[in-house]
Amino acid sequence: MKQFIRNQYAMFWIFLGMLILPNIFMIFTESTTLFTRIINVVLPAGLYWAALTLKDKPGKMFWWLFIFIFFDAFEIVLLYLFGEAPIAVDMFLNVITTNVTEANELLIQIYPSVIFVVVVYVTGMVLAVHSVRNKKTLHFGFRHNHRIIGCGIALIGLVMLGINYFINPRFAIEDDIFPVNVSYNLALSVDRTIKSARYHSTSRDFTHGAVDTRPDSIPEVYVLVIGETAKADNMSLYGYARNTTPLLSALRDSSQLLAFTDAITMSNTTHKSVPMLLTATASEHSFDSLYHQHGIISAFCEAGYATVYLSNQRRNGSFIDFLGCEAEDVIFTKDSLPVSANVYDIELVKLLKSQLTAHAGHKLLVVLHCYGSHFDYRDRYPKEMERFSPTDYPSATASQRQKLLNAYDNTIAYADYIITQIISTLQQTGQPAVMVYTSDHGEDIYDDARGRFLHASPNPTYYHLRVPLLVWASPQWKQMHTDKWNAMASHVSVPVSTGMVMFHTMLDLAGVKARLLKTDNALGNGAFKASPRLYINDHNELRTLDNCGLKPIDVEQFKKHNIQYP
Fold first, then answer.
1. Which residue in 141, 176, 245, 382 could disulfide with 416, CB within 3.0 to 4.6 Å?
2. For the chain, what are the domain ranges?
3. Are 369 and 312 in contact (CB under 8 A)?
4. Does domain 220-533 have CATH number 3.40.720.10?
5. pTM, whole model, 2 decimals?
């Protein structure tokens, strides 16, 4: 073993194998053309091959290439988790915005991939240290000859690259060649982080020009509830076999609740989907306009409403925080609690009750951001409210799907309870009130042969996209605005994108006029028109559903559930 470790030539080949390992895996995982996948091995292999000859000890170059080793390890973990695609911009941003507790919950459940990359790449770094300390070196002739071989292979890869651009119109090196794509995505994530940090200055002079067109003497209340990771397909309200939403179903059956049957989100990541719900960015067909405007809370403030933001998430310095903190009263339930503290969403209902009392007799907008169905599912509901069991999964693997599903369905049943508690709280005020609920995105729970789990992958699935969209209004509000209630009721089966309609719907329901308001995007307006549904991809590009990475197996689900595609 000592002789093997001291063999610089053996180390050369080991380090080359470690560097190219994700590219080998991606031959079998990616949905790009076979020619592209071959290039994805040939070009990086040639470059790494040549690079390792630049020093007389291969361990030196292995350490010089540390950023690519990090990319390799990260990529292998994501391939294990999502089954395809390079490290996305959103994934880098998730690393920044995800709290420690969420990260620990995830890492514990995907430990096989973590153990694999630790064993492979930590071992590689240790061997590299031995290589550097080893007195033996690579012979000059070996380095010279293999530099020529490496450069020759890289040249072949470049020629193939040029051919691919000619024969494949969808090919782009910044999208399809690892680690070029990851390096590009890292640069984009840095750019977005800088833009986010400058948000307060770039949006300083923005105003909605919002005005309230209704009498101040009528204290209307509007509550927007943003769920987390809730799938419409797991709600009995939407035809799910398990009775997960009996309370909401009863409200729907008694015509007190509208359940929109064909609603999808525009992103499978929280840090994109929630800002789209709270702003007009999606309807402006430019996500980057987010850096220069304020959100719906600001518009209601301008219109004279009291505004409240209640969150059961942790602050993370993202746009969700920026937009939420536009409210006059802001409460994050976990601000003063330890990182490991677990708070159930019922706390938001308690806070809502106190805010309604504090603002009694005044016009009020409340935005609630739930923790909903975010993994680890077992921590999202009190044990005494568990309806489906067992839920004792030791790890989040495909073999544990039924237990994972039991726990997930318990979170949906708990959301059923939370939403109806919010409705009951509003009913008790006797005021004209509206509650709108939707989720930021859905979730993969080993739903099909792909064996995918969680969300936020570079390519979405059907299970990420279909979300619930619910609207409730008090009898007092419906009596005053029968036309708007009827308009919403007439649109319950119309295909909608939640990120496209939420800003406009909330303003229009409240009778608030603003510069960015588009009545044809407002569900309660007779002028509403269904817009082509789009998805915001990892590079913030608006893509149609047939060009956003969905697979035939996803299209089958759209058809099965009568969801419009594309």
1. 245
2. 2-195, 220-533
3. yes
4. yes
5. 0.92
